[in-house]
Amino acid sequence: MAKTVMDLVQAAKSEINEISIEQANDMLMHGAIMLDVRELLEYETGHIPKAHHISRGMLEFAIGNHPEFQDKNAPIVVYCKSGGRSALATATLQQLGYQNVHSMLGGFDLWSEGADIPPETQA
Questions:
Q1: Which of 32, 78, 80, 110 is the catalytic position?
Q2: With the C-alpha atoms ordered 40, 111, 92, 28, is the resulting torsion angle positive or negative?
Q3: What is the pLDDT of residues 97-112, one digit of tens each?
Q4: Does residue 65 sit in helix, strand or coil?
Q5: Residue 114: helix, strand or coil by DSSP?
Q6: Is 66 annotated in the active site?
Q7: Structure pTM?
Q8: How confident is the model at residue 117 (pLDDT cuts 50, 70, 90)?
């Protein structure tokens, strides 16, 4: 039986570490790298300050060449619009050997609603 997209997302979520907006903001304040895996137009419309962009569709091909992602032990917070693509991307990064990668629950939608965003991380 073929799997649905949601089956794939749920399978990824069972293998990854998901963190809250507050935890993501704390990690950002302590030097974590933010990775936005939305499409370029979404990123250009608005993104978390200091976030690096690699669209989900190009992640496997581009991550190894990106200068910010050479240390596979560095803390990385991955986000998308609402959490599905970031879950898939986080699982992929783990398969590629990244050891300290987390998916942000609620994605950019929840983050942009202002869920306890420290002033230091606001645009």
A1: 80
A2: positive
A3: 999 999 999 999 999 9
A4: helix
A5: coil
A6: no
A7: 0.89
A8: very low
